[in-house]
Structures are given as structure tokens and as C-alpha cells.
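Please go through the sequence and C-alpha cells given here and tell me how the chain folds. Record follows.
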Amino acid sequence: MKICSQILNKLMKHKYGYIFNSPVDVIGLGLHDYYNVIKSPMDLGTIKSRMAENFYGSPLKFSSDVRLAFNNAMLYNPKGHEINALAEQFLARFEELFRPLSLKLEQEEPPKRVHFEEELQASSWDHGEADRLKNGERSIVDRDDSVDMVARLIKFTAVRALFQTQVFQSLRISH
């Protein structure tokens, strides 16, 4: 976690790091919709506090929060906005700094292999369906039904897109 701390310090001490070093001042900046858009606020100062409390059990959890901080900034601020551009640059710099550690972690921890049966048991898939298929019975949803369902979904999507286009055009004409 020492490397994570070093990476975090580099980001925080950057010339524009102050922008991401503390929680967004939603009230002071008048961002009334912030919490409607951003469901999990995060900033580098919070990450630093969490590191001091040994909150992160692994560098991957640390990296997840760092990415969240910058992704939140890019999500809330539209492309072309200076905060969006800075967040994008900071995220790229973070990935560059974190990559060697990430590669090292991948080498140390080989991926866990899960047998199909275990994966099936852990999934939300209908387990009765799996038994029926193993015994050679037909699926609950016949292939013809699923093809029909896909066709209806495609048609619905096309109609919705056409409707949205017409609404958008009518709004442009009326203004």
C-alpha cells in the first residue's frame, strides 16, 4: 500500500490536484442536482483518510476509489468543460502510475478458476432450467419464442427512436 500512498500524494500535490483533494462543495457551488447524478461521491482527500485508517484491504480497492473520483468528475461535468478535461488527464496519469503495481498484482495472484457447476450454483439463472436442459428436455422459452421476442424488441426500439426524432424536431421548429 506504500506505492498507492505515493501515487496518491503525486496526484494530490499536482498543480491542479486541489480540485480533486476534497469533497465537492455542492451547496457552495450551487450544484443542486449533484447527488442525482453522482450516487457515490469520492475525492482524493477521502481516499487519503481511508488509507490512514487502513480501510483498503488491497491496492485494487484503492484504485477503484481513485477511478471513481475522476469518473464522477467526468460524469458530472460535460465533455469540453475544464474539470472534465482535468479529470480525464488525472485519470490517465493515475493509470500510468498504477500500471506497474497492477501488473505485479496480476503476476502474484493467478486468476481463480471456477468450475461450471459452482458458477451455475452461484448465478441467478433458474437452476430448474439447468436440470431440464441436462436431461434433454426443451427449454421453458422455446427458440421460436425468443426469436419473436427479439424481433418485437427491435421493432419497439426503432419505433421509439423514430418517435424521439419527431419530438426533437418539433421542439426545434417551435422554438
